[in-house]
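Worked example 4.2. Below are the chains of a multi-component assembly; read each line carefully before continuing.
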Amino acid sequence: MKPIPGLRRLFRLAAGRSTAAADVAEELELHLALATEELMAEGMSADAARAEALRRFGNLSDIQRTVTAIDREQERAVRRTEWLDSLVGDFRHALRALRRSPGFAVGTALTLGLGIGLNTAIFSVFEGVVLRPLPFAEPDRLVRMWSTKLDRGLLLFSVSAPDFADWRSQGRSFEQVAAFERQQDVTLSGGGEPEQIQAARVSADLFALLGVKPALGRLFTSREDRPGEAARPLVLSQSIWRRRFGQDPAVLGRTLTLNGEPWTVIGVMPKDFSVPGNSAEVWMPLTGLDAGLHPALDAGMASSPTQDRGNRYLRVLGRLKPAVSLTAAREEMNTIAHRLDAQYPGSNTGWTVTVLGLTDAVVGQQFRAAVTILFGAVGLVLLIACANVATMVLGRSAARSRELAVRASLGAGSARLGRLLMAEGLLLGVMGGAIGVLLAFGLVRLLHALEPPNLPRLDQVSVNGIVLAVAGLLSVGTGIVFGMVPLRWATRIPLTQALREGGRGSSAGRRRQQTQRLLVVSEMTLAVLLLSGAGLLIRSLIRLQAVELGFEPRNVLAVDLSLPATGYPGLAPTRFYGDLLDRVRTVPGVRGAAAISSVPLGGPNAGTVFAIQGQPVPDPKSTPDADWRVVTPGYFRLMNIPLIRGRDFAEQDDSAAASVVLISATTARRFWPGADPVGATIRLGDVVKGPLAQVVGVVGDVHHLSVEAIEQRPMLYFPHRASGSRRMSLLVSATGDFGALAVAVRREVRVMDPGLPLSAVRTMDEVVDAAYAQRRFNVVVLGVFAAAALVLAGIGLYGVMAYSVSQRTPELGVRLALGAQGGEVVRMVLGESMRLVAGGLALGLGGALLLNRTLAALLFEIKPNDPAALIGASVLLAGIALLGSFVPARRAARVDPMTTLRQE
Amino acid sequence: MPPQPVDLLQGTLEFLVLKTLSWGAMHGFAIARWIRKTTDDALEIEEGALYPALHRMERKGWIESDWGVTENNRRAKYYQITRLGRDQLRREESSWTRYVSAVSKIMAAARAQT
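Applying the procedure described above to all two chains together yields the following structure tokens:
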């Protein structure tokens, strides 16, 4: 008999279990039996014949084992290919099925794409900023330390040099403790255009502490930051090495001129290296530069900054010893701080230490809060998208229940159907994922283009492998979920019923509709959450922009200048700025010009303690302290800051005249409550020996540090002609084109000193704008999420109502045939959708009241239960919902009674 | 003098099986008997060695197998040659012929010298 090729294999695989061993045994046994029979036919006895057959055959058990192994391997290979073949088949089938309903496929893929894309984009930010370790050796052991004085609200304050020395020598928790200063503008001159760059002084062991090796040359030696060291070694960043020196290795050993002083290049740092929280491009040992940031007080200060415990200007980093915990380090540092507190009353009273992991310090709590909230918000968007897709898939599964029933009746097992539907779901998920990844690429590019301020480590944000893996996981996960939705329904409906009714009007159909409604209500609940959150942020931003800044930023140009110490010793800067202001005032269109040591909302802060003459030397705990600025006469007029009492500075207030000071309204109110401060004398810095200054007037409060600060810090103003501050910001009030004005100012500066670079040139409007930028960024991002949620919820409601109307067409037809008016039908459908909306709103508002509290950190003068935000969100959602259900309602009213009755 | 059994290499066994099956489907015992008869017992193979060869060849796709019934109504596994197997057979035949003719030329030359 001729066997049919391949038939046996097919059945064997269908059985699914290996029969190789039995088959081989049977085959070999047949051989032996036939051989034995043959030998018996030649006249052998049965036993002898069997023995001879076995002898001729060879080692039976060996051969049996070998052959069985070969067959098993064969079976496995066949199974693999068959599985792959059928998988490809399933996907091909799924593709065909989706192509038959392109509207569904596109809608689902786009919805999922939106959800996955937004999530992927936010995750890429989260990954780059929060999750990715800092580019230092063992970053987990790195910490940042600050001085803290809680009762003054000084949470993260810099550290004085003597405190730093004590921390370094006494702290047992640390392998190393290093310090650096805030970056300063310096002029790099010689060999091309003079350029303003940022330099920072660092203690010699800072780079070693971070565990970073130079790309070229060497780092500072431990001797190079000692006082009195004559050498001036300089380490360059990769960026300036590339930009200014074309990556020339011969730069090592070259002498560069910074602020007129010679510095020798000893090393170049690797790509992407920066000192955390510092934007310097060149680094020098911590004794190299003179302390140019305290010009007003330098002159009269009894002690140098390196010996004054009250002068806190160092930023401190530490590397924990391997087994030491952050908590232990905190405890130890505060023990040390207590000891210093007792030892140095006045300068150290009430000061404690804050220790934070470096990653936390770099990322910042404000930002972490924002990212966490955005992460939660975008998760909600994905949930809404999923709910939306689920309603679509449910609607489609209704239409398909007949098809599935037919397949089932033709013998497709539920596992087979499940694989088909799963393939469809996966295909949708993957399509959504592809769209999402494209969207994420676009969004991340947009993010880089926008350069949101205060977003730390923005350069680290990219759609990389990890991000793509998460996106892939999201798409496959959602795909599987949506594959399972119709499967549940398909396997639940009794076969005969599905064949007869196609699911319509059946109890399964009603259950399905119930589920859809539930999904839409939850979509709207989530949308309300997002909308009300966005509303709160928008309201906060509006409030913030309404805050009186205390000055008028309109039509003012700000230009930062920094004079080198060598060319401008002592009071030389006074003359320079005086002459420059005179020259600038002659530029056509200029209405006025003045200068301040640091512009409001746009420059570094400076502070000092002081004592009021004639009052008892205060208890060290309550030593008054204030911020201070140096200004030229006319500054207050130019910025529209009101003079409340006394007089403004005049040209006569120079170093030869008696020292004078202007104070802000808050200073007056706090330290001279109910009294007139004009005429009073204060002692600056050292409360016993410090220089004296007489208060000659009171000016209005100005938001100097942030727009948000509700309570202003006390502010002191010193006349520039008495101090000789080298670093000043020119403020020019003018009408007309600021571009042309900037050029004119630059020309005047060139005339006076061709070697002087202008660093930041911007309008005060831009400075103020930047102060709102972080909040605006939050508003934009959360607003986008809320808008996406709103649109998705609207589409979801539309889908459900359209499906509901299509299900009720016969009923509506009967109603219309019995004389119901179109308007009544519209009202009926709208009423049904409004019930859903009401449910969503009620749940959403309840949830908002509970959850919006988490937004508190991002709000400004707005309560989390702000009624305007909640009502606004409700109205917006109701409006969109009305829009979404109006189209199906209209369709319901236009149902032709005759057609539907005939169909029944 | 009785003929010495030729030491059969794996490849030669496969060649013989393909050649045998080119006449039609057969079960293992029939293949063994056929090889023995047509070679006049000159190639005395250990019969069991045939089976690993058969199953290996099936993996390679040269032959395929199915269960059928013998004339005596016994369940037996029948092998038959595939298209791939015929291609292989043709290749081996031609190289075998070349080999044999080369050897016989050498033999003839050797005989001529003696």
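Take a moment to check your reading of the output against the notes. The interface with chain A takes residues 25, 27-29, 32-33, 46-49, 51-52, 55-56, 58-59, 64-69, 74-78, 80 of chain B (CB under 8 Å). The helical segments of chain B are 10-21, 28-38, 50-60, 83-113.
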